[in-house]
Amino acid sequence: MQSLTDVAERLGVHRITVHRWLKQYSAGGLSELLEIRQATGRPRVIPSAVIAGISEKLSEESCDFKTYKEIGQWVEENYQVSVKYQTLHKQVHYRMKANLKEPKPMSNEKAQEAAIE
User: Fold this and answer.
1) pLDDT digits over 60-100, tens only?
2) Contacts of 69 (CB under 8 A, 6+ apart)
3) Residues with Cβ within 8 Å of residue 24, at least 6 apart in sequence
4) First and final CA of the chain: distance in angstroms?
5) What is the pTM of this model?
């Protein structure tokens, strides 16, 4: 017989997840285990319509956002929603995996080194 930890390692999940699955199965069988539930927790700060609008705007060729502050101003003008810089950065950079068009400027030393190479 394998332990919960062994099973969890084999499946690539946490041991608590395996424990929860066993508890669900013993409570209601296979139907209880396979039931798709609504996610709980706090809703996102940025509404899904705003996220869709940002995504659409970033995918346009004419999009010229250079900073996350510009994106925040655009959101405020178009959706009347104020979003903190940190929240917006996390959404755009990490969740949407979007990069802004212009890279940060290099220092003079790095620019000279790049020119030499």
Assistant:
1) 888 888 899 999 999 999 999 999 999 999 999 999 998 88
2) 85
3) 32, 33
4) 61
5) 0.56
